[in-house]
Amino acid sequence: QIIRRSFTMESSSTPKGFFAVYVGENLKKKRYLVPVCFLNKPSFQALLRKAEEEFGFDHPTGGLSLPCDEAFFFTVTS
């Protein structure tokens, strides 16, 4: 499995070659670790543009907040 659910909310626990994203509704966001190679995928780039439009570049959680539910996230990343 390429996408990994992270059970810690600490940004220091992100392994090399991955970046953290937060997916879900505000109070129920879950942290996932995504390989950096996903940055080249057009579908993931579209999701990042949507995140930029909705949240800008301010992500105080230490990871990117993606404006989608988990089901859509898994569709984009699979």
Q: Which secondary structure elements does this structure contain, and how are they paired or packed?
A:
Layout: E1 4-5, E2 18-23, E3 30-35, H1 42-55, E4 64-66, H2 70-77
Parallel strand pairs: 2-4
Antiparallel strand pairs: 1-3, 2-3
- What is the element string, with H for helices and E for strands? EEEHEH
Give the mean pLDDT.
82
Helical proportion, percent range: 25-40%
SS strand fraction: 15-25%
Provide the spatial order of strands within the biggest beta sheet.
1-3-2-4
Per the principal axes of the C-alpha atoms, what is the gross shape? globular
Cα Rg: 11 Å
Distance from N terminus to C terminus (CA atoms, Å) equals 10 Å
In this structure, how is the largest beta sheet organized?
4 strands, mixed
Which regions have little confidence, pLDDT < 50, spanning 5+ residues?
A: none
Total number of helices? 2
What would your notes on this structure say?
- Pfam families: Auxin_inducible.
- This is Auxin-responsive protein SAUR15-like.
- By secondary structure, this protein is of the alpha+beta class.
- It is built from 2 helices and 4 strands.
- The chain has helices spanning 42-55, 70-77; strands at residues 4-5, 18-23, 30-35, 64-66.
- The chain has a 4-stranded mixed beta sheet.
- Strand 2 (18-23) and strand 3 (30-35) form a beta hairpin.
- The longest helix is centred in the middle third of the chain and has 14 residues, at 42-55.
- The chain is globular.
